[in-house]
């Protein structure tokens, strides 16, 4: 088998994501949110009215963990729960004004992390990287459309 670098793909993607998340956490400490909280905040701001069950899927955490996270964020005034109009069992999550204001800061920190990560790449190389990763995600998504649900300018 001829080695062309593809044998490193999984490790490189995993390490890049881990390092970006770590850098975001370092730069984002001043926002007063944990990593899990800012991830949820971004999802809620970008998808107002998302259900708790869908948030659990998007964040890849157990529904009970999402419920506890939402409890803490609701107590802090970051989000609010509302009953679904036709199904009382379903709870929908909406951002508060506090979340919308913090979202700008989160986007700013994410942009800084992205610039640091992409330093040394030309605009064409950046576009090629994004296109390639989008294709990889699309190929593996099983109709989840997860790259489409990722907010632009938001760290995952």
UniProtKB/TrEMBL annotation:
The keyword Lyase does not apply. Keywords: DNA-binding, Transcription, Transcription regulation. Signal peptide: none annotated. Residues 6-138 form the HTH marR-type domain. The keyword Oxidoreductase does not apply. InterPro entries: HTH_MarR-typ (IPR000835), Tscrpt_reg_MarR-type_CS (IPR023187), WH-like_DNA-bd_sf (IPR036388), WH_DNA-bd_sf (IPR036390). SMART domains: HTH_MARR (SM00347). It holds the Pfam family MarR_2. GO terms for molecular function: DNA binding; DNA-binding transcription factor activity. This is MarR family transcriptional regulator. The lineage of its organism: Bacteria, Pseudomonadati, Pseudomonadota, Alphaproteobacteria, Hyphomicrobiales.
